[in-house]
Write a structure and sequence with these properties.
Its EC number is 1.1.1.103. It is an enzyme of class 1 (oxidoreductase). Catalyzes the NAD(+)-dependent oxidation of L-threonine to 2-amino-3-ketobutyrate, mediating L-threonine catabolism. This protein is of the alpha/beta class and 365 residues long. The chain has a domain of 242 residues: 3-Layer(aba) Sandwich (Rossmann fold), CATH 3.40.50. 47% of the residues lie in helices and 14% in strands. The protein is built from 14 helices and 13 strands. The strands form three sheets. Strands 1, 2, 3, 4, 5, 6, 7 and 11 form an eight-stranded parallel sheet that branches. The protein has a three-stranded mixed sheet with strand order 8-10-12. A two-stranded parallel sheet has the order 9-13. Helix 9 crosses helix 14. The N terminus is likely disordered.
Length: 365
Amino acid sequence: MFRKCVTTLVQNTFCSGPSTHIIQEICQRSIHNTTGLLRPPKILITGGLGQLGTECAKLLRAQYGSENVILSDIIKPNQAAVESGPYIFADILDFKGLQKIVVDHRVDWLIHFSALLSAVGEQNVPLAVRVNIEGVHNVIELAKQYKLRIFVPSTIGAFGPDSPRNPTPNVTIQRPRTIYGVSKVHAELIGEYYYHKFGLDFRCLRFPGVISSDPPGGGTTDYAVAIFHEALRTGKYTCYLKPNTRLPMMYIEDCLRALHEFMCAPDDKLKRRVYNVTAMSFTPEELVECLSKYIPNLHVNYKPDNRQLIADSWPQVFDDSEARRDWNWQHKYDLNNLVDFMVKDVQENYINAVNGSDTRATIKI
């Protein structure tokens, strides 16, 4: 599961080079200045067994120590998750249970990943309301009570058909038409309200489609993950979006680095509590063209479904100039880098792991 990539991120960020001590000093200085801590922060990650949680925990544990990063979810973890560091059961709809966790573990930072994604949320709106809205209410109130620094991710799905799509600025009309998008706008606004009303250290990044080698989890941008698994396994893929559907994207290594740099950014550098971040924008046909360099006989069909309507209401190009200006956000991966890493990662950790060294697609690496 993109093991090499996260290992590289940890090494590049924390383990080598003259900039290592500078980064660590900035992070520690920010922690001390804004929370008064004289120790590494104790961090709770909710929804920790999803696409971002496990790898985020690896990154933060490399910086702050395994015992200081607590992964949590409501599902049974695999052996690797248990062995990598603390794991606990945490139901975001159980406020008293969350209070007990924060008190017992002396939590300082809360990273809230629990959510139903866009396509899944449309299939079960009542559950999406409970998880994505009631759950956010709980963690926001929890953070206020215990003076936590809290991170809640938002998304390109927080915008709608009335939003400018190319580019989409940081502040503009939103009005999304999915329950996922509505819940994310709600999270942005309630977090900003608690910041202005109560001084809550609320931080939120609007992520584009996040691409990793983990199997897709129900998002509209997940074609850009599924195509690697299917193409490398069979040499074929049926895409549920039109070939010219342009959407903002980001490789997971950039995503995790953005999150950590934003959490470490000194409060006086942040002109906003919610920022767009991105790395690239591409279409399915552009991705196929790059992937065909590795799978020359790749065959892709296009059969748009209801997810096309969702994609058509989302930004095509994300303007993240404010993040680059305020806290010096810089992406590392473009489309060519992304495809190269994804082919190698999916091939090694999924295709070869199942089939040995044999696979039906002919790969040129």
